[in-house]
Design goal:
Structural class: alpha/beta
Bound molecules: zinc ion
CATH architecture: 3-Layer(aba) Sandwich
Number of strands: 5
Shape: globular
CATH class: Alpha Beta
Number of domains: 1
């Protein structure tokens, strides 16, 4: 299949996207009375990749909600892992100093995501348009497993998993709001407990109405003294960001827009 085919699929997926979100919201409201409750003073798991989105999310969640945060990093055997992990370690230390009462711990899980078995058969045009298959959904499912385990460690129910999708991701199949809210529903159904919540607070209205763009994040970090230049977005395997991949391009555009 060529890229054109996948772009057509993408467009078709966009039709009725908001209606499907409303349908899932309705199931959640009918079942438990809410879509998302701000986890104020509660323990939460934040999926932390070392990129600019999740790095900023940590600060906002602690500052606005005083949440107790477990950072979760997946050593998923990606090309940029060494540099991602350096950023993760840097900001773990940074936030531990900044919020000693709110950073509970940094968890690292060695799980290859996505699995490489049979990867040689993957349609590259698909990958280019749609991303890596089930990448985020796999991480979310594993994060809920940790939420169950860690509830025992902290003798406190951990019901919330947060990920760093931003306003620009809103309709992406892999990280958009429909995926996030369906991941929430999926966790409730499969774990049989309806208080579980998955959310992307930079994308919905819970931190700022209309969500936050990457440009908003750069501005926020500048104002708050967060050294965003230490975060790692590039997908490449070189120490210096390649400047060519999509992650680099979006990041550079955001930094430029603020200067
Ligand atoms: Zn790059």
């Amino acid at each position: 299949m060529g890229e054109e085919y996948w772009f057509r699929q993408l467009k078709a997926n966009g039709k009725g996207y908001l209606d499907r979100i409303d349908t899932i919201k309705k199931i959640l409201i009918d079942t438990r009375g809410y879509v998302f409750e701000k986890p104020e003073n509660e323990p939460v798991i934040i999926l932390f990749s070392g990129g600019m989105d999740s790095t900023t999310l940590i600060d906002l969640v602690i500052k606005q909600w005083q949440s107790k945060v477990i950072l979760l990093y997946f050593r998923r055997d990606s090309r940029n892992q060494t540099y991602e992990e350096q950023a993760v370690d840097f900001f773990h230390e940074f936030y531990k100093k900044r919020y000693p009462n709110n950073i509970l711990e940094l968890l690292k899980l060695d799980i290859q995501i996505p699995s490489r078995v049979n990867k040689e058969y993957m349609d590259n045009a698909r990958k280019k348009v749609m991303g890596l298959p089930m990448r985020n959904a796999t991480m979310w499912a594993n994060a809920f497993t940790q939420a169950i385990y860690m509830s025992g460690k902290y003798t406190s129910t951990i019901r919330t998993v947060l990920c760093g999708s931003v306003a620009e991701d809103s309709s992406s199949p892999e990280s958009g709001y429909l995926s996030v809210i369906s991941g929430c529903l999926h966790a409730c159904i499969c774990l049989g407990v309806w208080n579980l919540q998955l959310n992307a607070p930079l994308m919905d209205n819970s931190l700022k109405v209309g969500g936050m763009t990457k440009k908003d994040l750069v501005e926020y970090c500048k104002a708050q003294g967060i050294p965003l230049e230490k975060s790692r977005s590039c997908f490449g395997d070189t120490k210096e960001p390649c400047g060519e991949c999509l992650a680099c391009k979006y990041r550079e555009a955001a930094f430029k827009a603020v200067k």
